[in-house]
Each structure stands twice: as C-alpha cells, then as structure tokens.
Amino acid sequence: MVGATTRNDTGTRAGSAGSGAGAAFAIVTTLFFAWGFITSLVDPLVAAVKGIFTLSNLQAQASASAFFFAYFVVSLPAAALVSRMRATTAVLLALGTMVAGCLIMLGAANIANYWLVLLGLFVLASGITVLQVAANPLAAALGDPSRSHFRLVLSQTFNSLGTFLGPLLGAHLFLKGVEVKGGAALDPAVRAQALAGIDQAYLWLSGLLAVLALFFWLGRGTVARAAPAPQGASGGVGSAIASRWALFGALAIFLYVGAEVSIGTQMALFLNSDAVWGHSDAAFGVPLLGWTMGSDGTPGVSLQEAGKAVAFYWGGAMAGRAVGSALLARFDAARLLALFTAVAGAICLYVVFVGGVSAGFVALSIGLFNSIMFPVIFTLTLERSSASAEATSGLLCTAIVGGALVPLLVGGLADASSYGFALIVPAACYAVLCVFAVAAGRAPVHAVGEPAAASIH
C-alpha cells in the first residue's frame, strides 16, 4: 500500500510538472508570434514613410536600419541581463520596453516626425532583442529535453505566422492611396490617412502588448516553476573573436540578415515599379496571390497591393521551415545550405539581368530559400567554433546588425539605378554564404552542447 501510494504521488507530481511546462510553453509561444508580427511591419512601413516624408530609397531604408541596429547595441547587454535575472522578469522588462517603443511611434505619427519614427523603431527593437534572448532558451527548456527541437520548430512556426500576417495588416493600414513613383509628394488627405494608419497600428499594438504583459505576469508562476534558474555570466565575446569560425559565422549572419531584410523592405517598391508589376495585372491571375492582394479595379499593381504581396515572401520562409526541417533530417546541413544559398543568389541574378513581370514572381520565392539559412548558419558555426557556445552565440546575435547596414547600400543603389538592379547586393551576399556552406562542410566539428535556439522573426 505504501509503495502504491508513493508511485501514485510521483506520477501525480510528474503529470503536474508536465502540465505546468506545457502551459508555460504555450505562454512563451505567444511571444514568438508577437515579435515576428511586429518585425515584419517594418516592410510596409519603409514604403509608407518614403511617401509620407518624401524620402529617397536610402533615407527610407534608415527605418530598417534603426530597427536592426538595436541588435548590435542591445544583444550583449541583453545576454548579460538575462544571465543574472529570472527569464520571466526579463520578458516583462522586454514587453514594457516594446510598449514604450509603440507609444513613441504614436507620437511620431501624430506630429509627423521621421526622426521620432526612427527612435520608436529602435526602442521597439531593443525590447524585441531582450525578448528573443530570454524566450529562445525558455522554449527549449520548457519540457522534455529530447523534444526541445520540436518545441523550437513549433514556436518558430508561430513566429513565421506573425511575419506572414504583419505585411498584410501594414499594407492595409499604411499604404492605401500612397504613391511614391517619381518622388512625387503625397496628396495631403492620403498623407494624413497613412499617418492615421500608423497611429492606429501602433496604438493597437501597445494595447495588445500590455495585455500580453498582463497575461505573462499572471502566468509568471507557471513559467518560473518550469524554467531553469539564471546561471550567471559565462564566456566572453573576446574568445569568440579569437575563433576563426566564430568570425566567419558572424560574417555569414551579417550578410544573411542584411540580404533578407533589404529584399523584404524593398519588395513592395520593387513590385510596384513600372518595370515589374506597375502596369501588369498578371499577379491577379494567380489564385491565392491575387485574392490576397485584392485588386482595386485600376490596371496594374498599386503600392498597397504590392505591400500585401510581400506577405508571400515571408510566407515562403514559413513553408520553407516546414520543408527544410524534413530535408535536414535526411540530408547534410552544410550541403543543403550551399544549395539554398546558390538558388537564392541565382534568383537575384535573374531579377537583375532578366527582370520584367516574371521577375516579380521569382523574387517572391526567395523567402522559400531563406527559410533554413539563419538556424543552419547558427548551428554550423556553433559546431565549428573553438569558443564557448555562449560567447559564439553572443557574437552571432551581434552580427544581426547586417540588417541595419546592408539595406542602406541596397537603398542607395536603388536610387542610383533601379530596384531590380539593387538586388545585385543580396546576390553577392548569397555567394559568400555559399562559400561559407562549402567550407563548413569540409571543416572539423568540435564537441558542443545542445545548440542555442536561433530566430530573428
């Protein structure tokens, strides 16, 4: 009887722990969706501010730069912060920072100040950076260690869902009636409507983030009981800088994020250009794409319609993660990365040298091949770096600053030439990434622990 009672109590405790971890994981997964959604809003925002403030492509790309520069500034301090406090406290701090960023965006929309837009995006991204540093290891730790990869893939699927929906809402709110061809100033009514759309989007986001913070605060006990305790600072970025493979991996992350962001932020402007879909209705003949874009009855693709099509760029990444997970279970990661980077580079070259209506469809497919790049680059680097996983991860996250710098180069080239020709820069990035993949396939692997989770959207 005593033994039976003991077994029953143990089973009850195990079941309770499993239930608690499952509830905690569900709470954390909502965070993945939130930052994916908010990050992808930057794409239609770049097109909107170009028209609202009559900016060049280079100046408009400063919006993406302000957002992704936060990764460079905040990643290492965020890692140190999270290592010294409970993850639940770090998440609540991150959500509070994100609410502050949304409120700054509200002020920017109401007084029509572009510098304030840049500040708001930086603050918002700073909160997201802390959130990612805290939430990625949480998702891996909440449950059976043998199923950590499954939980990360599931969480990042919700992250991808957010990146798919963000451009749809952003295009609907920010880009109605906005026209940027030829650098013409917007009609005052259209400008006011676009600013009101930005105001509305970030007002709702600030409210939803506040509700999410309350939801997380109420569930903090459940998460805290299931989450690992803070371990204190470990490793230093200096050891990663001394590692040849950590530096090579950081360069790869820099170029990958730069290529992905610059393509995404230029996509709506590219599709709307007269050289691609500006005078064509071909996109509306594609069932799901045409239905999502929603023709306004005017021949050609407007900027708002093009902005909605950008969702398929991110949707390709969402589908690619599912397909890529299955492929990675059967094929060598380095070889698969080499193939995907080569195809993405070839697509960019098609856009540069062939162009036309078909280039629009081809360009949207780049997202499908981007899908596995970040996590595979991340893990290949961790496996080959002579530095600790913590130090290497810190350096790789800092390299996300590529999303701030490469888009400026692409925007400047688009000003000097065309949106299509500007994709020569991402093509060069993918070429270097292909070299990285081939070299990684030939390099020895060091014994490391469980790879850190990696996600930027």
Automatic annotation (TrEMBL):
Protein's name according to its UniProt entry: FHS family L-fucose permease-like MFS transporter
A Pfam short name: MFS_1
Location of the protein in the cell: Cell inner membrane
Chief site of localization: membrane
Record-linked PANTHER family: L-FUCOSE-PROTON SYMPORTER (PTHR43702), PROTEIN TSGA (PTHR43702:SF3)
Example of a GO cellular component annotation carried by this entry: plasma membrane
Keywords: Cell membrane, Membrane, Transmembrane, Transmembrane helix
SUPFAM superfamilies: MFS general substrate transporter
Claim: Transmembrane helix is one of the keywords in the record: yes
Phylogenetic classification of the source organism: Bacteria, Pseudomonadati, Pseudomonadota, Alphaproteobacteria, Sphingomonadales
Cross-referenced InterPro entries: MFS, MFS_trans_sf, MFS_TsgA-like
Keyword match Cell wall biogenesis/degradation: no
Source organism, top-level taxon: Bacteria
Residues that span the membrane, as ranges: 21-42, 62-82, 89-109, 115-142, 201-219, 239-257, 336-355, 361-382, 394-413, 419-440
Molecular function as annotated in GO: transmembrane transporter activity
Membrane topology field: Multi-pass membrane protein
